[in-house]
Every structure is written in C-alpha cells, then in structure tokens.
Specification:
Its main location: membrane. One of its GO terms (cellular component) is extracellular space. By secondary structure, this protein is an alpha/beta fold. It contains 8 helices and 13 strands. The protein has a 13-stranded mixed beta sheet with strand order 1-2-3-4-5-6-7-8-9-10-11-12-13.
Length: 372
C-alpha cells in the first residue's frame, strides 16, 4: 500500500497541467498577462472574467462567430463606466473570430472609458458595414494600433471608418496581411501624431499599391516607414511613391523585398530630404542600386549577394555602412552546399532569415540596423 501515495504525488503535477489545459483563460502569477483561447465546442466564456485584473489581455475566439454577443452590445455603455475606468488594461489583442461590426464598435465605445493604449486585431473577419460613431467619446485614446490578417466588409473605407471610432493621438499604425489596402483617401482624416507606419507583410502591395496606400498629406508627422516583404521592386520606385504622397520619413525599411537595380533610363527621383536611414538588407541585391539618396547616416546592405566591395561612386555619402553577410566578406559561402537561401547568401544570413521567417517582421528583435 505504501507506494500508492508516492505514485499520487508523482502524478499531481501532471494532473495540475491537465486541469490547466482545460481552462480557456490563463492568468500569470503576477496578474499582469491573461491569455484566453476559446477553442472548445462549448466554451466557458465566463472564464474571461479573471482577465479583468490584467494589464495585458489576449482573447482568441477559436475561429467562431461572436454574433451571440450582439444583444449585450446594444446596452448603454455608461452603466459600465466606473468598472471600465478601474481596469488596469493597457494592451489588448482580439483574434481568431468572425466579428459583427456592431459588436466591434460597441467594444471600442466601452473601451473609450478605459486606459487602453495598444490594440491588436488579428485573424478576424469583420462582417457588415461599420456604423457611424457617436458624437462624443467614440472610443479609446490609443497610441498603437495593429491590424493583422483582418478582412473588412466595409471595403477600402475600413480605415477611415475605424479611425472615426478612435480618439486622436495614434502614434504607431501596423497593417499586415490585410485587405484592402487601397484606402478611400478622400474619407480618411489626417493622422497628425502618427510617427510610425508599418505596412510590412503585404506582399501584394507593390509600388503602385504603395502610392494608393500613402494617402497624400495624411501622415505629416511620419518618421518611420517599414515596407518589409511588401512587393517592392526598386528603391527608385518607392521614392516615386513617397514623392507622390508627400511623405517625408526619416527611416525607411525595404528589407526582405526582392529588389533589383533600376533601369538606366529610369527618371531620377528626389528622395525626401529628411531621410537619413535606409535598410536594404535581405533584398537579393547583386550590386548597389542606382538612384539612392545622395546622403545618409545609415545604409544597411547586409545579407545580400554583393561579390565585391562597392565603389565610392556607387554609394551615397554615408556615415554608417553595413555590409555584413555578403559573399565579398565570405567568398567560401558561394560553395556552401547546405545553404537554404539563394546562391550567394552566407550561412549566417541564411540562419537569420530562417529565424525571422519569410516576412522578416521580427527583424527588429534581432537588432536590424537602419530601422529602430
């Protein structure tokens, strides 16, 4: 009989793990981060109540429709004001669900009374058209908005409609794998405080689409523009899009695009005079593209296919030039048989590219220079 209690003691940790796995929501020991994943056929939605004490909350709906919550969305949000104002919530992620637009804006309206600063909408299908906002207190005063893999029934007007449900002051806007990106510019209001616009991971955007997405004179404070894996073809084509939109970024990230040198007869574009950092890493370049800005503080050409050191006449006047990960610094890389990247990319860059994935979205986390 003696071995039985010891056996139970050994099984207790396993039993605890199994019990935890059945809970759709998990709150960490510091009551800081709460994650809910409602994948069960009949999820216990009330489990999300434990997330009310958290600062960071992530809720995923298991791909199901949230239409059942529409009735509650029609209630007067003022009855929840005191409770919402008391929340510690600062960062919220909502994902993996079909969301009626009326429910989405109802949630935004309630969050208008909260201290929420960062909102991420991910893997969502927003059904029906977005209704007009109320006259007062439409939604939260966000500093960061991320829209990842979201489809909108509203079409190209989705950003302008969503913008009306947010208080002014947005500083960071990240839109990835989201359709459409052809915004209704006439309806879009100016983003007076937006300093960072990230349109990475939209491979179908292209330079023509960029001209449409960068609605003219809507981003007057823009400093950082990220276009990783966005279907860009030449730096000069991006320059033309920036000029057409009147955008004046300080830092431009074109890494993880398949760039090619511009044709010799391409008209020379005048780059924004504010631009001082250009990231052209992981772009498959075999030579320095023509028509780069005449002067830069930072030029990142790392992890390309450069077989020789660039001549001075091929480069702009640059203070910080990065050439790491090119065959010119590791000639033996050309003969590396196990290199999973295109011929001419050194193994270190191949490993780095596999780490960040095709898109390169995590390049910032690896300290990629030229966009920080």
């Amino acid at each position: 009989m003696a071995p039985v209690p010891y056996l139970l003691l050994l099984l207790l940790p396993l039993l605890r793990v199994s019990a935890d796995e059945l809970e759709p929501c998990q709150l960490d020991d510091e009551d800081f981060r709460c994650v809910c994943n409602f994948t069960d056929p009949e999820p216990d939605w009330s489990s999300a109540l434990q997330c009310m004490v958290a600062v960071e909350v992530e809720i995923r709906g298991g791909g199901r429709s949230l239409e059942q919550f529409l009735k509650k969305a029609n209630s007067d949000p003022k009855q929840y004001v005191d409770m919402v104002r008391a929340l510690r919530l600062r960062r919220l992620t909502v994902g993996a669900a079909q969301v009626p637009s009326q429910l989405l804006v109802a949630v935004l309206h309630v969050l208008g009374y909260s201290r929420l600063k960062e909102l991420t909408l991910e893997d969502l299908e927003v059904t029906s058209l977005l209704p007009p906002p109320p006259v007062k207190d439409p939604g939260p005063a966000l500093s960061t908005l991320r829209i990842h893999n979201v489809s909108w029934a509203t079409g190209g007007a989705w950003l302008s409609k969503l913008q009306q449900w947010l208080k002014p002051g947005l500083r960071v806007l990240n839109i990835a794998q989201t359709h459409p990106l052809a915004f209704s510019c006439a309806q879009l209001r100016t983003f007076p405080t937006l300093t960072t616009l990230d349109l990475s991971d939209n491979p179908g955007l292209s330079e023509r689409g960029l001209t449409t997405a960068l609605c003219p004179h809507k981003f007057p404070a823009l400093q950082d523009l990220a276009l990783r894996n966005a279907g860009m073809e030449t730096p000069s084509g991006v320059c033309a899009a920036l000029a057409a939109a009147g955008v004046q970024p300080h830092r431009l990230d074109l890494s993880h695009n398949s760039l090619r040198a511009a044709a010799s007869d391409d008209p020379r574009c005048v780059w924004p005079r504010t631009l001082n950092s250009l990231n052209l890493s992981f772009a498959g370049l075999e030579q320095v593209p023509k028509g780069l800005p005449p002067k830069l503080s930072v030029l990142d050409l790392s992890c390309n296919r450069l077989n020789r050191a660039p001549r001075p006449d091929e480069l702009p006047e640059v203070s910080n030039l990065t050439l790491d990960g090119n065959p010119l610094l590791d000639p033996g890389a050309l003969k590396h048989q196990e290199d999973p990247m295109p011929s001419g990319v050194v193994p270190a860059c191949a490993r780095s590219a596999l780490t960040v994935g095709v898109s390169g979205t995590l390049a910032l986390l690896q300290g990629a220079r030229g966009y920080a």
